[in-house]
C-alpha cells in the first residue's frame, strides 16, 4: 500500500469527501440556466450528481462548487431537494463559490475540505447519472492505496490529432497530424479519486494556461505519480451538447421504469 494513502496519524479519523465542480456556464449546451442547474426528469443535474455521491457509503461529505456569484442560490436549491432519506443523516453538503476555469473551481473546492479528509473524489456536476457502483469502485481503489484512480471506457470513434483551426480560421479544413491506435486509447470519466495530499500538491504545483486542466488526473500525472484506470460506465457520460440531454432523459426514464418493477 502506498504511504500517500495512509491516514495522517495512527488512530486519527479519516474520511472520503466528494468535490463537485458545478460552476461552468454550459456554453456548448446553448442558452439557458447554468448547465448544472438544468433539469433532467424535472430535477436539476446538480441534485442528481450530489445524490449519486451521497449514495456511496464511502462518501461522508460533499463540497459543491457553485458559479462564482451563485453560491447562495445553489444552497437554497439544494435545500429544496433533500438527499434520499437514508443518506441525509450521514452526508454533509457544503457549497462554495467557484472560479473562472474548472481547475480553479476544483482548487476552491479542495480548500474547503476539513483536515480529517484523506481521500477525495472529484465529480463533474455534468455527469448526473453516474451509477453508485462506479463511485464505490473508485473510492475503494483509493482506500486500498492507489494515489489516483480514474473510471474509463474504450473509445468508439477513431481519434485524430490535428492542427486546430480556431478563432478567425474556425471551420476551415484541419490538417491531420497523427492517428493514435484506437486500441490504446480510453475516454475518461468522473468521479476521479485521489489521495487528498497528492491532489492538493498537483493543484499547488501544476499551472496550465488558458482553459486550465480539464482533468484532475492529468495534473497528477505531471507530478510523476502513477494514475490507474478502472472500468467506467456508459451512464457516467458527460452532458455537454443538446443531444446529451435527450440521452440523459431516456436513461432516467428507463431507470424509473425498471425501479417500478
Ligand atoms: N466547471 C466549473 N468551473 C468552471 C468551468 C467548469 O466548476 N469555471 C465544471 C462544470 O460545471 C462541469 C465540469 O466542470 O460540471 C465539466 O465542465 P464542462 O462539461 O466543460 O462544463 P461547462 O464548462 O459548464 O460547459 P461548457 O464548456 O460547454 O461551457
Ligand atoms: Mg467547460
Protein model, in words:
The protein has eight helices and twelve strands. It has 261 residues and is an alpha/beta fold. A hairpin with a 2-residue loop joins strand 2 and strand 3. The longest helix is centred in the C-terminal third of the chain and has 18 residues. The chain is globular. The site of cytidine-5'-triphosphate has 22 residues, from helix 4.
Notable characteristics:
31% helix, 2-C-methyl-D-erythritol 4-phosphate cytidylyltransferase activity, 8-stranded mixed beta sheet, nucleotidyltransferase, 261 residues, EC 2.7.7.60, 8 helices, binds magnesium ion, IspD, single chain, two-stranded antiparallel sheet
Task: Summarize the entry for a quick read.
The chain has 261 residues and is an alpha/beta fold.
Q: What is the H/E order?
A: EEEHEHHEHEHEEEEEHHEH
Count of DSSP strands: 12
- Structural class, judged by helices and strands? alpha/beta
Query: Architecture, CATH level 2?
Result: Alpha-Beta Complex
Which sheet architecture does the biggest sheet show?
8 strands, mixed
CATH topology call: Spore Coat Polysaccharide Biosynthesis Protein SpsA, Chain A
Helix content: 25-40%
Give the arrangement of secondary structure elements.
Elements: E1 15-21, E2 39-40, E3 43-44, H1 45-54, E4 59-66, H2 71-80, H3 85-88, E5 92-97, H4 102-111, E6 117-122, H5 132-143, E7 148-154, E8 161-162, E9 176-178, E10 186-188, E11 192-195, H6 196-205, H7 216-222, E12 228-231, H8 242-259
Parallel strand pairs: 1-4, 1-6, 4-5, 7-12
Antiparallel strand pairs: 2-3, 6-11, 7-10, 7-11, 8-9
Helix pairs in contact: 6-7
This protein binds cytidine-5'-triphosphate and magnesium ion (MG).
Amino acid at each position: 500500500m502506498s504511504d500517500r494513502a495512509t491516514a495522517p496519524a495512527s488512530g486519527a479519523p479519516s474520511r472520503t469527501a466528494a468535490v463537485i465542480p458545478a460552476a461552468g456556464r454550459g456554453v456548448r449546451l446553448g442558452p439557458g440556466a447554468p448547465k448544472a442547474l438544468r433539469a433532467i426528469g424535472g430535477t436539476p443535474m446538480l441534485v442528481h450528481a450530489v445524490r449519486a455521491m451521497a449514495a456511496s457509503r464511502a462518501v461522508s461529505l460533499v463540497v459543491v462548487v457553485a458559479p462564482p456569484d451563485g453560491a447562495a442560490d445553489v444552497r437554497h436549491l439544494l435545500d429544496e431537494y433533500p438527499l434520499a432519506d437514508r443518506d441525509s443523516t450521514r452526508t454533509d453538503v457544503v457549497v462554495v463559490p467557484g472560479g473562472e476555469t474548472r481547475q480553479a473551481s476544483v482548487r476552491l473546492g479542495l480548500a474547503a475540505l476539513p483536515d480529517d479528509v484523506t481521500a477525495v473524489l472529484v465529480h463533474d456536476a455534468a455527469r448526473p447519472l453516474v451509477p453508485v457502483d462506479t463511485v464505490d469502485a473508485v473510492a475503494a481503489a483509493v482506500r486500498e492505496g492507489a494515489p489516483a484512480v480514474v473510471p474509463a471506457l474504450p473509445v468508439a470513434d477513431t481519434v485524430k490529432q490535428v492542427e486546430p483551426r480556431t478563432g478567425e480560421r474556425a471551420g476551415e479544413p484541419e490538417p491531420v497530424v497523427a492517428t493514435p491506435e484506437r486500441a490504446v486509447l480510453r475516454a475518461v470519466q468522473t468521479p476521479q479519486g485521489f489521495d487528498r495530499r497528492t491532489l492538493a500538491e498537483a493543484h499547488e504545483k501544476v499551472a496550465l494556461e488558458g482553459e486550465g486542466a480539464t482533468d484532475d488526473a492529468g495534473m497528477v500525472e505531471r507530478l510523476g505519480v502513477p494514475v490507474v484506470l478502472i472500468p467506467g460506465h456508459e451512464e457516467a457520460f458527460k452532458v455537454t451538447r443538446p443531444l446529451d440531454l435527450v440521452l440523459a432523459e431516456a436513461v432516467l426514464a428507463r431507470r424509473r421504469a425498471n425501479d417500478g418493477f
